[in-house]
Write the C-alpha cells for this entry.
Amino acid sequence: MLLEQFKKKMPKIPDGPGVYFFLGKNKEVLYIGKATSLRSRVRSYFSPDLIHTRGPVITGMVEKAKSIDWRETDSVLEALLLEANLIRTHKPKHNTDLKDDKSFNYVVITKEDFPRISLIRGRELAMREAGEFLYEFGPFPHGLQLKEALKIIRKIFPYRDDKCIPNMGKACFNRHIGLCPGVCTGEISKTDYKKIVRRIAMLFQGKKAELIKSLERDMKAAAKAENFEEAAQLRGQVFALQHIHDVSLIKDEYRGPASATVGNTRIEAYDIAHMSGKDVVGVMVVVEDGQANKDQYRKFKIKTAKGGDDSGSLREVLTRRLGHDEWPLPRIVAVDGSTAQINTAKKVLEEFGMAIPVIGVVKDEKHRPRKIQGERDVIAGRERDILLANAEAHRFAIGYHKKLRNPLRGM
C-alpha cells in the first residue's frame, strides 16, 4: 500500500532539499529524515534490499508506515536545522531507536555577557541544570554535518567560541580570520554582540524569512544614519542567507565540483574480494589530503549479491555506505577500472541524487595500475592520491577476505 502511494506521489516529491516524514495509521510521526534530493532519498526506502542497507529498525518502520509527507526547504543547511527542530517536537520513536538520545549532538548558547556558541553531546546536556543555557538546539543526528553547518553559519554571523576570552587585550585566532566579531579585542559592545546571538538563534529556530526582514530593516537604518560599513555588512548577510543553497555544506558534498581544490579532497576507494565466489567481502577506504585516513576505513560482508558478481557486490556496498548520513561524503569515488564497475558506481550515485565523479583504475594482468580513466579535470593533480586509495582498497579487501576465510589469522 505504501509503495503504491509512493509511486503516485513520486512526481510531486521535489528533487530538492527538505525534510520527509513517515506517518503511522493515525498520522503519528514514525520517522523524520532530511535529504538533498527528497525524491531520491524517499525512493531509496523502497529498495528490495532495504533490510541490508538500512537495517531492521528502518525496515520495520517502513512496514508500519501508512503515508509519506515532506517539507521542502531553500537549502540543505535549513533542512538540517528543520530536521532537528521537528525531531525535538515530535520525538519519533524510530529516530531515537537508531541512536540513544544521549548520543545526539546539541548546539547551546551560554548565558553570559558575551555568549558562546558550543556543540555538546546529549549525555553532557543531561547532566547540566535546567535553564543553564540561553538557548538549546537539537537533537542533531548527524554530528559531522552539524560541524560543517556551524562553519557556514559562523561565516555569516561571526561569534565567540570557548577559546575566545572577552577583552583579553589581543586578537584570538578566529578574529584574525574574520570568525570572531572582536569580543577578545573589545571592538564590539555587549548590545551589538547580543544582536548577533539573536540572529543566530532565529536561524536555528527556522525563522529565516523573519530574520532577513529584520536584517533589511537594520540595513536601511544604518544607511540612513550614514553608517555605510555596517549597512554593507548587513547587506552581505542578507545575500548569504538568500543564497545558502550555493554554499550549503551537504549540497557541496553531494554535488560540488571535485576540482574545486586539489588539496582538500576526500577520495573513497572501493574493492571487492572473494575466492571463487565464496566469502565475498567489500571495503571502503579513505584518502584525505594525500594521507590514508584509516579510522574511516569500513568493511562490508556481502549479503545479497551472488558470489562472483563483482558489480552486484559493489552496488550493495555503495548502497549500504550511502545509507549512512553521518559519514562525510567524498568528492571522488575510485573503483577498479572495468566499465561494469564504473557504470555500477555511477548508477548507484545517480539513484541517490549525487553527482560525485567516479574514477576507474585500470590494471594489467599482474594487477599493476596501467591507467586512470574518468574526467580529466578531476584526475589532474590527484593521480598519486587516487592510486594510493586504490592500492589501499585492494590491500584492505584482501586482508579482510583472508581473515574471514581463516579467523585464526586475526588472533
